[in-house]
């Protein structure tokens, strides 16, 4: 027993040390990933309950209403998409404002709707 | 031959002086290395941190801080400037403080990792103050990563060093 304990204490690098460092590094790399220089997206995918229901071009100004439990009105203008109006509780999706970077998204959780901007096709490779 | 007890003021004083010298040398070696191998701007291993940790464990918080101050001042005198002095003082002392607070609770390597991270965070904060640009915070994650990696490596070195230092030098450890 005693020798075993001694052995453990003499061990140069403990597994917990590696895990401790790796977690910090991983967390910071994740932060970095989200802070990466961003490129404007080209298309936006609107999903409802996990299924893609619309794919829109950011270059074309348009208005789309998504009906579900609630109603979200998406507006694309000047290459940016935002929720113009919604009747969901909290209106968190509307508060997100305009988005246009690849990878950004507007989520309306009460309605199960999300709009995610895709880049030049390389976003799928990352996600 | 008369030997001062390792706990005496004299022996602590002498050990601190030796550590100051080692820290200074390591500090200069570190800057030389980082300019020779530019992995990332401002990336340093934190070699002098080994001395800080050694001092912290074997001489205590106040000696470790003092050694850090002396080392920072000497490094600045030998080829730095006032801004650099403030950077290294702030980072060094803050990391010693953090390491002091956690040293009895977690393993040596984790202590070193936290010290490295603290040091680098303080550098970024100092840079933000000096340049008056909040955008400097963008470097924070990068520097936390390099601080953690550097801290980990230095922690391993520390462990190796701790195992090799003659016991009679370190009797006053804890």
Could you please describe the fold and organization of this structure?
- The complex is a heterodimer of chains A (127) and B (174).
- By secondary structure, chain A is of the alpha+beta class.
- In chain A, 31% of the residues lie in helices and 34% in strands.
- Chain A contains four helices and seven strands.
- The radius of gyration of chain A is 22 Å and the shape is elongated.
- Chain B is mostly helical.
- In chain B, 72% of the residues lie in helices and 0% in strands.
- Chain B contains six helices and no strands.
- Chain B is globular and about 60 Å long.
- The model of chain B has no long low-confidence stretch (mean pLDDT 84).
- Classes of the chains: A alpha+beta (127), B mainly alpha (174).
- Chains A and B meet through helix 2 of A and helix 5 and helix 6 of B.
List the helices and strands and how they pair.
The complex is a heterodimer of chains A (127) and B (174).
Chain A: H1 2-10, H2 15-35, E1 43-48, E2 51-57, E3 62-67, E4 71-77, E5 80-86, H3 92-96, E6 105-108, E7 113-118, H4 123-126
Antiparallel strand pairs in A: 1-2, 1-7, 3-4, 4-5, 6-7
Chain B: H1 9-36, H2 48-58, H3 61-77, H4 82-102, H5 108-131, H6 140-164
Helix pairs in contact in B: 1-2, 1-3, 2-3, 2-4, 2-6, 3-4, 4-5, 5-6
